[in-house]
Write a structure and sequence with these properties.
Number of strands: 12
Structural class: mainly alpha
Distance between the termini: 71 Å
Radius of gyration: 32 Å
Amino acid sequence: MAAEKQFAYDGLAMAQVRVRFAPSPTGYLHVGGARTALFNWLFARQQGGVFLLRIEDTDADRSRPELTEAVLEGLRWLELDWDEGPYHQSERLPLYRAVADRLRAGGHAYPCFCKPEELEQRRQAAEKTGKPWKYDGRCRALTEADIKARAGQPHALRFRVPEGGETSFDDVVYGQVSVSHDEIEDFVLLRSDALPTYHLGVVADDLDMRITHVIRGADHLSNTPKQILLYRALGETPPVFAHAPLILGPDRTRLSKRHGATSVTAYGEEGFLPEAFRNFLALLGWSPGEDTELMPTEELVRRFRLENVGRTNAVFDRSKLEWFNGEYLRTQPLARLLSYVEAELRRQGLWRDEWGPEASGRDWFLRAVEMLRPRVRLLADFSQWARAFFSDAFDYDPEAVKKFLRDDRLVELLPQVQEALAGLQEWTHDEIERAVRGVAERAGVKAALVINAARVGVTGQAVAPPLFTTMELLGQKTVVSRLQRLVNQLPALTR
RNA sequence: GGCGCCAUGGUGCAACGGCUAGCACGGCAGUCUUUCAAGCUGCAGAUCCGGGUUCGAUUCCCGGUGGCGCUACCA
């Protein structure tokens, strides 16, 4: 917090916090980006600050609008709303050129006429001799006359890194980080097509947008000194930096397609709740400092501290994410959960209007969801595992068949169960139980035998909510006809 | 290769230099039950290695090892 106070902007005693999420449009919002966005968002919301979005699309082939749209979609799914933007760097080119001019005027930048191919050659030559390559500064010493003479020739603009010494900064997460100037080459600011490179773009924009805190992935840690150098050369005060550790796949390498779902939107499609996802993501690299883990978003906002962000890379553990999701599925206010379930059923074409808010079957729908939710981990479970609750068109799970339908006695027993249930005058839990258990008793078999078999017949699954409650909910007609169906198919199923 | 950063059970996180290193996920076992992926109970499992500093290091320092990142006219 001390660090937060020492930077005042535009003469304000206490500047308003302004943070940004600045993805390059890759066509999707991946988990790492999502976590960065979340940290920025949490911090902004907590500080009453501004969270803005900036698209870093100075690279020509990244400026296709649909690539950006996919990133925005990910943010929307995560429900991370932004206050400004999205700004597009591709639309702010004059700013970068102006900043480049300032640098050039101050003697901090110089034109470089080396051709990329030549550089590549010199680099390879150097590497062959085992020497670490760094731009050799060939154009550094060009005089104004040299430059004038070559005017019109294609050239890049390079930053003049001070000779000797080092640059260090105080990262909120990583502490003091220093890099010797010997390690930093005269990097390119403007490419020969006059488009800015990343370093010039971020610094110019963060300055122009009055960003107070740069919260981003640790992959930018090593590059930060270059940016500090730029701030200094411009005579500007750098923002506060806070780098968050990287998120890795289960094999401890960078998260990629290999590791399954790479876009957060894909997690949405799989049936994860945004709030559960946020909770899980927040705990990847951050901890409230004690053992609490389940925290609704408001609490995350309240407790988030940049100084409690850790420094070690974290592995994305899907099974824990699933646990979080199950936890939220179970504890979510029912009304809210219903709309998620409705969306899921609609996606799968299982939705019926009679279950709608004011409709006649609403109460039934509510009971079904309430009954199902203790054993669900993904929204998709409602349409897959629990499909039989919402549709007559379901298959018998082969495992369930193997486990509960093998017994020969069922050929005799199931028709009896069906008959007993068909004859019931009152369709209540207790009456159903009496009827089913009665069949087992008269046959001298354990009740579990018929119960388990009937469960498969009625739900298609080995696992489902308690059978008699399930039957009561589904209704006599449905249950009886499903048992009839099972009786018919039994020989074929168990053959 | 050079530079930077990091290092607590399989995974995510805790532990003013001081109890038998805590919690959660996962695993295993038991229990409840009509099924369990729900509940409850229990068990196994970690301070990377080596030196220092200290009465005492998970914690501080140095070295090693390992991992990750950066090293582009990508971002």
